[in-house]
Design goal:
The longest helix is centred in the middle third of the chain and has 47 residues, at 35-81. The chain has helices spanning 15-19, 35-81. By secondary structure, the chain is mainly alpha-helical. Helices cover 56% and strands 0% of the residues. It contains 2 helices and no strands.
């Protein structure tokens, strides 16, 4: 069995995409969905996705800050390590 690979990258669900969804009303004489429930669900999904997007953004920002701090620390250590350049020898070795 093979794995199906889509040629297009998967589209991420965004809050704006859900806000744009509209449901058709049922035809006369037919039962349909309760609009209040549908739109309550849409509002709930928008709130959940908005919170997720905010959390993801905060985590990406934190990751970038940590990477910068690590890079600066590594640069500082590398500069400090090469400052002696072999002129000082530990007498205990």
């Amino acid at each position: 069995m093979g794995i199906y690979l889509s040629r297009m990258p998967p589209q991420r669900i965004r809050a704006a995409n859900i806000r744009r969804v509209r449901f058709r009303r049922a035809a006369l004489g037919r039962r349909g969905l309760a609009e209040e429930q549908v739109y309550a669900f849409v509002r709930w999904m928008v709130d959940e996705l908005t919170a997720r997007e905010a959390t993801e953004t905060a985590l990406r920002d934190q990751n970038a800050r940590l990477r910068r701090a690590l890079r600066e620390r590594q640069d500082w250590q590398a500069a400090r390590r090469h400052r002696n350049a072999g002129r000082w020898k530990n007498p205990h070795y």
